[in-house]
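Q: I'm writing up a methods section and want to include an example of the input and output format. Could you take the sequence below and give the corresponding predicted structure tokens, formatted cleanly so I can copy it straight into the document?
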Amino acid sequence: MTFVGSGGTNPPTAQQLFRRKAGHLRVTTLFFWWSSGGRLLGSTVPEVTTPTDEDPRGPGQEPLEYGALASRFEAIQGETGRTPDSLVPRSIMRGIAAGLSRAPSLRRIDPLKSYQQRSLWARLADEATARPEHVGFVLLGDGGIRELAERLGVPHKTLATRLDGWRRTRPRMVVTFTGRRVRGAAVLHTVQIPVASDLVLWAATTRAAVDEVDGRPPHPLLVADAAERLAMLGATGPAFGTWPGLDDAVEDLGAAIERKGGEAPRRRLETGRHR
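A: Here is the clean output for your methods example:
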């Protein structure tokens, strides 16, 4: 399998988590790679420090991390001349959300201990994948955590407890951003699901490429199948020059999920290929 943009030999860069330290952005890169047969081999896990990033610009304003990733999405979109929904259609965003909702069960220790927690996590994943141009972020106004709690249909204290636990997982399920303190309390104004950010950009890059076989972008349902499986594994894939390579990856990723004790999701698009 050839990794487009990597010289054909090196593993591709996958997840980029941006953190602020000493007034600067620091980028930690998470690598996932495949063998020549397409089998998921392993990853390097990013170092995790302070679980909450304080953004000095206050509530309701976008953190620098969001701006960096949104600009990257806009650049890909600009090169294609397509709308966000045309580049990364809703079917792909739903695939990412579905994979995220099932991903915790594949961790060594499942952080979701009840149906209520699993349901809340799934609703948060839906919020983070509502718009492709939001690149995996949930942007809040002055209402902060109360606003998000109302959108998710839970008491704000319950949500605060869950977010606090999820941002302490390794690797982190969420990253929370707070602004300046108001009446002694830091106001939550952004929540990021890093895997969602990564996969939206991966899907945009994949859909921006013209297939070497038929001269068209990969079918959105095929990209959605790959994105769902990648989300379950907490990974992103390489760029693909042809749709058969992406089709093979869907099968390989399903096998990787089963090796971890999970069940591969049903495919949205059956290509009818014989491998």
